[in-house]
Specification:
- It comes from Lacrimispora xylanisolvens.
- Residues 2-61 form the HTH deoR-type domain.
- GO terms for molecular function: DNA binding; DNA-binding transcription factor activity.
- By secondary structure, the protein is α+β, with helices and mostly antiparallel strands.
- The chain has helices at 2-16, 21-28, 32-44, 74-87, 93-106, 124-140, 213-216, 230-236, 260-267, 280-296, and strands at 18-19, 49-52, 58-61, 142-149, 155-168, 171-178, 183-188, 192-201, 219-225, 242-244, 250-256, 274-277.
- The strands form three sheets. Strands 7-6-5-4-8 form a five-stranded antiparallel β-sheet. Strands 10-11-9-12 form a four-stranded antiparallel β-sheet. It has a three-stranded antiparallel β-sheet with strand order 1-3-2.
- Helix 4 (74-87) packs antiparallel against helix 5 (93-106).
- The radius of gyration is 27 Å and the shape is elongated.
- It starts with a helix and ends with a helix.
Length: 298
């Protein structure tokens, strides 16, 4: 507990520049005498902290001080800066300013080895604003009103308590409590077409562990692709779901929800996919393809 308080005191002073002992005592709910003892401990650890007297006096740390390796190793510093660097791509001024400050404080620069963009192609501003709204709502525990489109194209307006942003299988979701359903729900962020943060707080709770029950309710879909589709097959299926045939074709077997999304997904391959299992999906796909033909036939 004491070690945690010492770290917090250091960072508080670095942020404020100069603070008084009574201010620190109130902040950390200890006595002024305890604060002065903490200052002695910090000083004995080699950190240039000192106390000045007078009207403008207080406790401060020597200007241009760089955190010693005793607190963070070079590897840890780069991990912290890289994490902030990945967050800064959503164009959040706070993260970018914090990245700059910590870089100067650590006396190092993050390695420019990764770039993360949360948006889809062609919709950078819209997706990033939505991501930023949901992130802020989750951090500040604010209720959010969303307009959500289900996989069956049903549009609903809901109030949710966003608990955590979640990345799974190439998609971003928000783990939330839905007040309309009185239950926990996982919302795909791409399907949230409108988002508004309300001036209403909620008490955060733990989102229940995701179980395999949802996947177990899916059916096994087995598909055949020609070798020309290798780039998509490896993009969209895991290695253990793919079997390469002697003629170069690929067999992909995965558990998927049988809904409108699946039909649209299979149609996106055009003639470059063959449904092997379940067999009845072949007719469903054929009927949908016929509807498309009937709509556009000359």
């Amino acid at each position: 507990m004491k070690e945690s308080r010492l770290f917090k005191i250091i960072y508080f002073i670095l942020e404020k520049g100069r603070v008084t002992a009574p201010e620190l005592a109130e902040k950390f709910e200890v006595s002024v005498r305890t604060i002065y003892r903490d200052v002695d401990v910090i000083s004995s650890a080699g950190i240039p902290i000192y106390v000045t007297t007078g009207r403008s006096g207080g406790i401060q740390i020597l200007d241009n001080y760089v955190l010693d390796k005793a607190f963070f190793s070079d590897k840890e510093k780069h991990h912290i800066l890289s994490a902030l660097q990945s967050l800064s791509v959503i164009d959040n001024t706070y993260e970018r300013e914090l990245l700059t400050k910590l870089s100067a404080l650590f006396n190092t620069q993050p390695e420019n080895w990764v770039e993360v963009d949360f948006s889809r192609w062609g919709s950078k501003t819209q997706d990033n604003v939505k991501f930023e709204q949901l992130k802020n709502a989750a951090i500040n525990h604010k209720v959010v009103t969303i307009v959500y489109v289900s996989s069956y194209f049903k549009k609903t307006r809901r109030n949710i308590h966003p608990l955590k942003l979640f990345y799974k299988s190439k998609e971003w979701y928000v783990k939330a409590y839905c007040t309309e359903k009185n239950d926990f729900r996982l919302f795909k962020i791409n399907r949230i077409i409108d988002c508004e943060i309300l001036d209403k707080d909620f008490i955060p709770v733990e989102f229940p562990e995701l179980r395999d029950t949802e996947q177990n309710s899916y059916n096994k879909i087995v598909l055949r692709f020609p070798k020309e589709m290798a780039y998509r097959v490896y993009d969209e299926f895991t290695e253990d779901e793919i079997t390469e045939q002697e003629n170069g074709d690929f067999i992909a077997a995965a558990y998927m929800p049988e809904d409108a999304w699946l039909i649209g997904y299979l149609l996106s391959y055009g003639i470059y996919v063959e449904v092997i299992e379940p067999y009845y999906l072949r007719k469903v796909l054929s009927d949908e393809a016929k509807k498309i033909y009937d709509k556009y036939k000359p």
